[in-house]
Design goal:
The complex is a heterodimer of chains A (117) and B (110). Chain A is 0% helix and 50% strand. Chain A has strands at residues 4-7, 10-13, 19-25, 32-38, 45-51, 57-58, 67-73, 76-81, 90-97, 107-108, 112-116. By secondary structure, chain B is mainly beta. The chains are: A mainly beta (117), B mainly beta (110). The interface between A and B is medium-sized, with 25 and 24 residues.
């Protein structure tokens, strides 16, 4: 199956700093990448959808100026958490799709655990 | 009402038991259904995919869809401790833009 990697797997930062998380599709070109946030024992919450070369589409309630998404190529998307605060501490997961039909399976990365002190 | 609902559990069963995991949904347009398994601190991985109504079997896993009741199920036979994970259902009307349920945490006790 298709492989999606994320880097870093874990990051600890101080309040007020910015953190960048990378999501890469290793063996396929991803037409679309998704970013999710997952709090302990809770479901995946879709934050935004991004297509290569275009602006990300953010879900209602997600601050686009705080969670900057750049989809620079068909294999790389980055999520930057700007001016992070303790409430941003969470598990961030990306997924990628190949654009196949009729079912566009999402391949998930292993996630990045962000802790903001 | 949430679009997709799942009992969050935790569901604890003894090894060897048959496990039934379920999701209900409100959007009658959904016709693509997926089950994902997520181990602790890992990303979800696709287990089963079904289209429209009916059953699909893959080894110890069986997925059922009842569109008339807007209800889907995942059965695990001969459950193993390695099946302990969170199981998420996901569904879509078009095969794109899947909506995920909150997940059910399963613990299979040896």
């Amino acid at each position: 199956g298709a492989v999606v990697s994320q880097h870093p797997s874990r990051v600890i930062c101080k309040s007020g700093t910015s953190v960048k998380i990378e999501c890469r599709s290793l063996d396929f070109q991803a037409t679309t990448m998704f970013w999710y946030r997952q709090f302990p024992k809770q479901s995946l919450m879709l934050m935004a959808t991004s297509n290569e070369g275009s602006k990300a589409t953010y879900e209602q309630g997600v601050e686009k100026d705080k969670f900057l998404i750049n989809h620079a190529s068909l294999t790389l998307s980055t999520l930057t958490v700007t001016s992070a605060h303790p409430e941003d501490s969470s598990f961030y997961i990306c997924s990628a799709t190949t654009g196949t039909t009729p079912v566009d399976e999402q391949f998930f990365g292993p996630g990045t655990r962000l802790t903001v002190l | 009402q949430k679009e997709v609902e799942q009992d969050p559990g935790p569901l604890s069963v003894p090894e060897g038991a048959i496990v039934s995991l379920n999701c209900t949904y409100s959007n009658s347009a959904f016709q693509y259904f997926m089950w994902y398994r997520q181990y602790s601190r890992k990303g979800p991985e696709l287990l089963m995919y079904t289209y429209s109504s009916g059953n699909k079997e893959d080894g110890r896993f069986t997925a059922q869809v009842d569109k008339s009741s807007k209800y889907i199920s995942l059965f695990i036979r001969d459950s193993q401790p390695s099946d302990s994970a969170t199981y998420l259902c996901a569904m879509s009307a078009s095969g794109q833009n899947f909506v995920f349920g909150p997940g059910t945490r399963l613990s299979v006790l040896p």
